[in-house]
Amino acid sequence: MNRVYFRLLLSLIISLLFYSPVTFSDLSVNQHINGLVGLAEEGSDARFVDYVKVNNLVDQSDQDGHTPVFAAMFGSPGLVNDVIELGGSLEYKDKLGFTPLISAALLGYPQAVESLLDKGADINARNNDGQTAIMMSVLGLSANQVDMSAAADNQWHNQWGKVIEILIKKGADADAADHRGVSPLFMAIFSQDYALCRQLIKAGANVNHKLPSGVSMLQFARVSSSRAVIDLLISNGAKR
Questions:
Q1: Is 226 exposed, middle or buried (CB count within 10 Å of its CB: 0-12, 13-18, 19+)?
Q2: Per-block average pLDDT, block size 10, for the chain (240 residues)?
Q3: What homologous superfamily does CATH list for 3-172?
Q4: Which residue in 78, 104, 162, 191 is deepest, having the highest Cβ count within 10 Å?
Q5: For residue 149, what are the contacts with CB-CB under 8 A and spacing of at least 6?
């Protein structure tokens, strides 16, 4: 995966999460949320907060289900906290089932993740595909292993390793599989990330978890990962 491909992939993920064609019936709210994203990107925190207050937007959402909390993800570390202080919901889900915490984890935004958790966000909430925050952060880190030079969409994003550390420290379920039966450890094995595999195993990931097809971690590693990862699994009790 070259740099251009990675950037296109990241752009596609962001577009799926935050943008879709506007319909006339929800044009007004969409304009508000888009305007808030612009203010967040500019670093205009005070204007962002005032805009939310004046227009009573705290938990209003656009056609994708994104509220001002989601828009604040594109701004400075304190902005998410400011919006939560206004009464923004921690567990509001967009149309893909992403909570603010899951979105922050996908973006690799440790300050937002920490702030949301400190306020009481559900660390093991799932999106429509059954994916949790830790799975989204592992996905981001795994994709980024191929091209560490990929540009962040802002200076606070793309710190997935730090997000994973925070989530594990706060008690995230490192073995939570999605609706396809894929767990974070499967993703780490696929990316041949020895350090991440070891980190997840230490946090409680089951080395003998199997996909619905019956494929085990060890079988998967033998066709898709490194010798070091295979040996790590075996040393931690992985079986065929």
A1: middle
A2: 50 50 54 92 93 92 93 91 92 95 95 94 97 95 65 77 97 95 94 94 95 92 92 93
A3: Ankyrin repeat-containing domain (1.25.40.20)
A4: 104
A5: 3
